[in-house]
Write a structure and sequence with these properties.
single chain; alpha/beta; 5-stranded parallel β-sheet; 13 helices; globular; disordered C terminus
Amino acid sequence: MFGTALSQLRYGMSILLNRRIRPQDLERIARDLVATLGEFGAPGADSALLPGQAAGIDPEVRRTVTRRSLRATARTAARHTAYYRRLFGDLGLDPDALDPDDGTWARVPVTPKHALRGLPGAFVSTAARPALMALTTGTSGTPTAVWYSRAELDTTLALSTISAVLGMGLRPHHTLAYAGCSRATLPLLNAEESTTRVGASFVQFGTLEPALALDRLAAPLGLPGKAPQITHLSTAASYLAALVHRAERDGWRPADFGLESIGVGGEVLSRPLRERAEAVFGARVTTSYLMTETLPSGGTPCAQGHLHHTTEFGHLEVLDPRTWEPTPPGGTGVVVHTPYVPYRECTLLLRYATGDLVRLPAAAPDCELAHLPATSEILGRWSGPLSAAVTTRDLLDLVEAEPEVPLPARYALAERPDGGAELHLLVRALPARALRARLEERIAAAGLPLTGLVLYDDRTALPPTAPLRADLREHSFETAPSPPGAGTVGAAGSGAGDGAGVSVAGAGAALSVRAPAAAGGAPTATGTVPAQAGAGLAPAGTVPASAGTGAPSAGIVSASAGTAALPVRIVSAPAGTGPTSAGTAPDPAGTVPASAGTGTPSAGTGTPSAGAVSASAGTATPPVRTAAPPAATGPASAGTAPTSAGTAPAPAGTVPAPAGTVPSSAGTAAAVSVDDEGSRS
């Protein structure tokens, strides 16, 4: 207790005096918060006083701290960075004379984003020791490079851990999946470290095909001391839209998942998308505002819909993007931010124009965070007057409420020769007269200055649209095409439609199984069951979903954490033979027979049936080859995949599988899929 109090005192003095923060002090505070959580099950009543928790302070003290922090940051930047050394020298600015209250701070020119993108090294302090280059995703242009020192990273990770406990509500029994671009180094590092420091588990998805991500979210984990399924998801708004689109199409329901919370960042999250995501996943959807360039500064939404910006880590301004004058109450402007020294010591930025549009409240807010500067939620990106007149949020609120608009929504906004604005929108099918009528009615009701609406059902005909983070799709062996010349075994068209069939891709690719929904049910999702967290394997044990749901059915084969599995293929038994049993004579090749005349696991169950196999941690599944039925056998029954060219048939009279292999239940074909990706990761 005494050590924690001392760490908090040292941290507070560093802020007041603008001295270098000791990362170990913040790490001690975060560590003790986690220990308190483990002992008492909840944070203490004084948690609002912890770093980054927006505790209210006296306005006069805040003004004093702001003035001192801005001067210290400007002084450090002018002394140690090439960009600001020249800028302050040319303008004759004295860092110690700058004050936001008397207008002298406004003499510092706004730093445009293209300046940082063009020469990132000019903003790196000569007194710092760069350790990590963090790149933005580049959806608004060339990726921006921001350098971090080891001390900055340690500080950021400690603050992220505190936020994970108090903001996200993470607890040791939770598991968080990160579905963001794997090249976004800093967000990925922060998510993984803060999650595991809390004691929770972390799973890295990346931006996979949505069908695969849904399967992995629904898969049982089977981890000791953890919730049965993934409980938290962190992703971008456009990728969440892609997940919602696929989940609605394939008939997933909240009961199929164990999600409690979905955190969204990086893009505008519309109200309709939030509502649709909560309806599909049965989890609350939250959002916050953070940028790689200005971390750890950020914004937190309140219950009234404002975005409240922290004053502890940096200084916020909202300026007119054409004049760089302060935006009046009720007006729309661009967020301009100055991250403070000592939180930042490597890449230093003064009055950095983020390009993010916000609207200032017309009157002072009276919400629970009223003591912090407030704006609207992020409206979009500034790209000219039209982007402020019809914002990204305006358009997403308009179109993402319509089921006939594929998600994520693809649209383009164009100025007409007569000065009006025209919305070009991709829809499922034309003519879509009812959709057009609804959109036009809602455009008029919202007062949007749109004078034209053009609908398309062909994306190639649509004018160029803005890139989305969901477009940074990552390949997986489950969806990657087979190498040229690789042998395949499968039913015609399997792996692409919703019909029954098995597709086996050679040369290290995974098996994939598609199955129709039960009678009267909606088409189901792919139905793959992923390996457990940490295994590094692609889905093992492909099964169709239960009737009308996306839940895995019987016959699951899972690989436990750390398991290295080799590809497993399917073997058809001779027609008329009965199911094999464990303990029969082993076949040297290790074939796995399946009962004849069957093709689908039993429906209506979410638990593995008798005979489901789990590979223990550290074990390796022996290679299994595929054998075709003997020449005398009849054709395979519905759902059984015939062999094709490129697969060597087994000789007539193939013997049963070795002891310990999975026998098929009577009337059920064993369909197994294991990806060997984890063996090379």
